[in-house]
Amino acid sequence: MPLDRNGITRRAACELQDGFYVNLGIGMPTLVANHVPEGMTVWLQSENGLLGMGPFPTDAEVDADMINAGKQTVTGVPGHSFFSSAESFGMIRGGHVDLAILGAMEVSQTGDIANWMIPGKMVKGMGGAMDLVAGVRRVIVTMEHNNKKGAAKIIPECTLPLTGLECIDMIITDLCVMEMDRDRRRFRVIEIAPDVTREEITDRTTAEILFADELRTIDS
Predict the structure, then answer these.
(1) Residues with catalytic function
(2) Which of 50, 52, 96, 104 is the most buried (most CB within 10 A)?
(3) pTM of full prediction above 0.90
(4) What's the average model confidence in pLDDT over 34-54?
């Protein structure tokens, strides 16, 4: 069975390491905060000026003044701090964030990403996406493998306005986990969801992709 959104973000949380500074993009990536492994210290950063986000609050914990970059209410872990957006982007642009987990509308076979607008639709702006893909040490995309119309999202070349070029290190979808092979400039499938086949992944992907010799099953 393909993974649901919690399954995708639970797998993404497996890429966290103790002491990491991590930025979570708007949408699905924010769910990663609910799956930080017990006993691990991870500092979740939001570009609106918050370091040390915790899981989403219960109804009793909601504080309307405590929000992430997506305007969602959040909690803070012990030691969390607030600062200006200038300081926040200084962290990102200075290379001080270890990992960014972002959503995407399209990813190309060479690792380009388009995740900030669809022409003709009203948008508020790019936000911090361009800074994140340029300044963070490692970038992971979490998304459904295909869009709502069934079209592939991992494609030969992005058709939407680009956020960054050849900047994605890993993609985690409802079907599989792909890791970028920098030498061959292609993504390699290294894990597949339970009961998903190699043929299904190939059929639902228009990009040229590689497969590991031994495919592990994602622990859902």
Answers:
(1) 47
(2) 104
(3) yes
(4) 91
